[in-house]
Amino acid sequence: MTTLELFRNTALNTPEPIGPRAVVMRGYALPYVDDLLSAIADIVSHAPFRNMVTPGGFTMSVALTNCGALGWTTDRKGYRYTSIDPDTGGPWPAMPDVFAALASEAAAAAGFRNFKPDACLINRYLPGARLSLHQDRNERDFNAPIVSVSLGMSATFLFGGHVRSDKTAKIPLHHGDIAVWGEVDRMRYHGVMPLKDEPHPLLSNQRINFTFRKAG
Ligand code: MD6
Ligand code: FE
After folding, report:
1. Are 204 and 126 in contact (CB under 8 A)?
2. What is the pLDDT of residues 126-147, one digit of tens each?
3. pTM (predicted TM-score)
4. Is the CB of 123 under 6 A from ligand 1?
5. Is the CB of 180 under 6 A from ligand 1?
């Protein structure tokens, strides 16, 4: 942990509200970083990051993979969750215990009890990669929150309203931050601005974000 990270983690240790049922918890994942990164390396060795194609025919600038019983995918036919990795033809790698434990603990800290995710979407951003405004609506259970962990380079997260054209708040997300949202905030539009090329000491020119969901 750097001094700056320690400061963010201890001096500003209260969850930062970004909506009625949405918070950012600064530095919450820092104690788990080494375990998370080794688990991700293992997942990626079985289910590599890939740039998927959207139903509209665009190749995503964000590369992704999944772990857990269900994985989020997109192709020309649409967005959906599958139990099979379309690239390997086998199941997605299992969700590591450290992932499930962190997700459930962070959800509880944000006021969502008994969160048991069955899907974890892992996104990799290189400089210039972005995510356009979207709603997360492919999950079966909208009652469960989403827990989002950011590692590596910082990003500017856009957090909008329930209509695409609603004004968006710009929320910086740094290495180790966890965002959690659910209930009235669950369907809000959100996205990520194009990543600046400001390398991170541990992950160099990458940002890795993983989001835990109850998809099935
Ligand atoms: C990202 N995250 O931060 C993209 N979706 O890289 C998401 O799209 C997202 O962070 C739902 C809930 C939390 C998220
Ligand atoms: Fe999303």
Report:
1. no
2. 999 999 999 999 999 899 999 9
3. 0.94
4. yes
5. no
What residues does the ion ligand 2 have nearby, CB within 5 Å?
136
Looking at ligand 1, which residue's alpha carbon is closest to its atom 13?
148
Q: Which atom of ligand 1 is nearest to the CA of 207?
A: 6
Q: Is the Cβ atom of 148 under 6 angstroms away from ligand 1?
A: yes
Domain 3-213 superfamily per CATH:
Alpha-ketoglutarate-dependent dioxygenase AlkB-like (2.60.120.590)
What's the chain's average pLDDT?
Answer: 95
| Nearest CA, atom 10, ligand 1 | 148
What are the pLDDT digits (tens) for 179-190?
Answer: 999 999 999 999
Q: Which residues pair with 80 in a beta bridge?
A: 73
Q: What is the pLDDT of residue 3?
A: 72
Domain boundaries, the chain: 3-213
Between CA 120 and CA 66 the distance in angstroms is 6
